[in-house]
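User:
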Amino acid sequence: MEFTIKIDQRKKEAKALIEFLKNLSFVEIELQEKPRYNPETEKAIQDARNGIGMTKFNSLVDFRKQLYS
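Assistant: Predicted structure:
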């Protein structure tokens, strides 16, 4: 017989329970992480982290020139 238990990992007690369960030989833990956002937003976040599509400026004056031109 198999059981599925959902545990909110934000609590200290939940983390302790998960660590305890990991040490039991008859327990198998499968993480099922859902993405925080939709795929387009996740891609935009990754692009921003990698600097894709970003413009760098040396000064605030240069930024304002580009912004108002």
